[in-house]
Amino acid sequence: MKQIKNICCIGAGYVGGPTMAVIAKNNPHITVTIVDINADRIAAWNDKDLTKLPIYEPGLADIVKETRNKNLFFSTDINKAIDQSEMIFMSVNTPTKTYGKGKGMAADLKYIELCARTIADVATTDKIVVEKSTLPVRTAEAIKSILHNTGNHINFHILSNPEFLAEGTAIKDLLNPDRVLIGGESEEAIESLAKIYESWVPKNQIIRTNLWSSELSKLTANAFLAQRISSINAISELCELTGANVNEVSKAIGMDSRIGSKFLKASVGFGGSCFQKDILNLVYIARSYHLNEVADYWEQVIIMNDHQKRRFSDRLIKTLYNTVSGKKIALLGWAFKKDTNDTRESAAIYVTDHLLSEQATVSVYDPKVSSEKMQSDLNYLNTRTEDENFNLVQTVSNPYDAVKNAHAVAIMTEWDEFITYDWEIIYKSMKKPAFIFDGRNILEKSKMEAIGFEYHAIGQ
Ligand code: NAD
Ligand code: UGA
What we know:
- The protein folds into 2 domains: 6-209, 3-Layer(aba) Sandwich (Rossmann fold), CATH 3.40.50.720; 275-457, NAD(P)-binding Rossmann-like Domain (Rossmann fold).
- The chain is built from 19 helices and 14 strands.
- The protein has helices at residues 16-26, 39-45, 60-67, 78-84, 110-122, 139-148, 170-175, 187-198, 211-242, 246-254, 275-288, 292-319, 347-357, 371-381, 386-392, 399-403, 417-420, 423-429, 445-451, and strands at residues 6-10, 31-35, 72-75, 87-90, 127-131, 156-160, 180-184, 206-209, 328-332, 361-365, 393-395, 408-411, 435-438, 454-457.
- The strands form 2 sheets. An 8-stranded mixed beta sheet has the order 3-2-1-4-5-6-7-8, with helices on both faces.
- Strand 9, helix 13 and strand 10 (361-365) form a beta-alpha-beta unit.
- Helix 13 (347-357) crosses helix 14.
- The chain starts with 5 loop residues before the first strand and ends with a strand.
- Uridine-5'-diphosphate-glucuronic acid binds next to helix 9.
C-alpha cells in the first residue's frame, strides 16, 4: 500500500476546508495543502483573525488554529500542490447547469473537468485522484479518460469518496461519521485512502464499494433525506386542514424504529446547496436512461418543496387580510439552516421575493449573514432591479429593529437565539394585530398566544 505523505485538495469551500482540516488534525505526519482559484477565499483561510475564515462552522476555527501552517496549508499555487502530492482530492463545486443541454437539471461538470485536465497537465509522478465532490454516476469514467489520455505515462487511480457532512455540524459529522464510503477499482489505492481515515474512524465504518455504487450512493442518500422532509411537509398541509398537529404526527411515526425520528421536522421547505441540485441531477440521469417513472418519482420531492415555500408566503398574505402592500414584514433568519452562514437555496430568498412582488417591505435579521449577501441572493433571481431590491429590503444587525412596526414576523431559520428573545417587547413594538409565522415551529404556541400574538406554525 502506498504511504501518503502529501495531500492536495482542489477547492477550499464548505467541504474542502473542514474535511481537510480534520484529516490534517488526525494525521500530523501528512502535509495537507488546500488550493483554490479564488485568491480572496485563500486569503481569508490564511487570515490571522480566525473570525474571518470564509466559512462559519462550530469547532472549525479551533482545528484550523491547531493545524494551520503546521501540516495544513492554504494556497493559490495549484500546480505546485498537485505536483508535490501523492493523493489529490477534487472538492470543487458541481452546481446545476445554467446553460445548454441539461440546463436547470444536470450537474455542471466544467469545474471538475478543469481539475482533471490540470492534474493531467501538471503531474509528473503517479497520483491517486479522489472524487470528493458530489458527481453523477459514471463521472469517474470521464475523469479516467482525461487522465489516461495525456500521453505522459503516469499511473492514475481514481477513487470516489463522497462527503456526507451537513453544514452547521460539519466538524461533528467529520469527527464521528456514520460511515466513510470509498469506491474504486484499485485495492491498493482504496487502502491508501482507508488508512488516512483509520486514524480516527473505526475500521468497520469504512466501507468499500465499486466506483459506480459509491457515486450513486451519494445522490441516493441526499434524495432519501430530502424525500423525508417533503413527505412530512406534504402531511403538514393536511394537518392544517384537519386539526392534526404535524409535530405530534412526526413524533408518533418517528418512534417506529423502521421509520426513525430524524429528518421529520416540518419546515418552510428545505434549502442548501445540495438537496435540490442532487435530486435534479438524479432526475436528469434517470431521464437520460429513459426511466421516466423513476424520474417523475424523484422530481416530486422538488415539486413538493417548491409548493411548501410558496404555500408559506401565500398563507402569510392571506392571513394579513389578503394584502401585504405597503406593510412591513420582519424576517428572522436568512441562512438555509442554523449554525451556518450559507444561504444557498434558502427558503428565505424565495419567500422574500414573493412578498416583494406583493409590494411588501421586508426587514431581515440573521446573526451570521451579511446584508451584502442577502442583497446579492435577491439580485441573483433577477425579479426586479438591484435598486428596487435595495429600497424594499432593509437588512438590520439588531433583531429588535427588524420587528419594530412590523405587521408580521416570519421565522425562516431555526437559530437558537430566536427562542430566547423577549417576545413581550417584540409584541409591544409591532403593529396590531401582531402575527407570527413560524416556518420552523420553534416557538411555543400557547406562550405566544398568551402574550397576544396571532401565531401560525407549519402543520398546526
Ligand atoms: P464551494 O462552492 O463552497 O467550494 C468549491 C470551491 O472550489 C470554490 O472555492 C471554488 O473557487 C473552487 N474551485 C472551482 N473550480 C476550481 C478549480 N478548477 N481549481 C481550483 N479551485 C476551484 O462548494 P462546496 O459546498 O464545498 O461543495 C463542493 C462539492 O461537495 C459539491 O460537489 C457539493 O455537492 C459537495 N458537497 C457539499 C456539501 C456541503 O455541505 N456544502 C456536503 C457534501 C458534499
Ligand atoms: C445535507 C445532508 O444532510 C448531508 O448529509 C449532505 O452531505 C449534504 O446535504 C450535501 O450533500 O451537501 P445540509 O444541506 O448541509 O446537508 O443540511 P441538512 O441538515 O441536511 O438540511 C438541509 C435542509 O433541510 C435545511 O434547509 C434544513 O433546515 C432542512 N430540514 C432538515 C428540514 O426542513 N427538516 C428536517 O427534518 C431536516
